[in-house]
């Protein structure tokens, strides 16, 4: 059964990856738009924001990486919605394939597409001055946090992808996720915010994720933010996975 599941998932992942490479708007939105935001904030707003001795591009990059993921996973919901409307799921049900491999193919495609987008954003940051003396273990830790975050948000995206009634409905869920980094430590230090807003910013998942990545890349001692970030990502992932699985079983039953 495990071999069959892995084989079916690999074949279906190849199918969804081909759809991504043929969709120019997907590539533009998931890679070029975050790079444009990076350039905008560094060269237009960066001079007005005080980040102490840390260059603004170094301070900003973790937040841009989070936004890259939040905007990229909208296409997971869109691809699932398209397959549901096109009757692809019904066709797969009539074939001798593992049912869960259909969802996992979309999830792995989201992971691959987002990792490519993140790599392009990091490359752009390097070209405009981002520097880090972090070693391989720190970079692997950053990659681990980002992968966990991608998986958590992707399983959230599966739910509207299966239940939406329109294309706009399938992608609308991502708007709050894209907006959330703006009310965090992603772009400015939280101590510059008014009381209630600061309290929210300091206790939402994006701030702990951004702070953890920032500390790792800056070679600072990792504090509670790393464990808080991992707890947020793991908790969201488990809950989203359970709800997505339940939604999928109801949808195809």
Automatic annotation (TrEMBL):
Keywords: Antibiotic resistance, Cell membrane, Membrane, Transmembrane, Transmembrane helix, Transport. It is found in: Cell membrane; Membrane. This is Transport permease protein. One of its GO terms (molecular function) is ABC-type transporter activity. It is a multi-pass membrane protein. Residues 25-251 form the ABC transmembrane type-2 domain. It comes from the Bacteria. InterPro entries: ABC2_TM, ABC2_TM_bact-type, ABC_2_transport, Nod_factor_ABC_transporter. The chain crosses the membrane at residues 24-45, 57-81, 102-130, 136-158, 170-188, 226-248. GO terms for biological process: response to antibiotic. Signal peptide: none annotated. Its main location: membrane. Belongs to the ABC-2 integral membrane protein family. GO terms for cellular component: ATP-binding cassette (ABC) transporter complex. It holds the Pfam family ABC2_membrane.
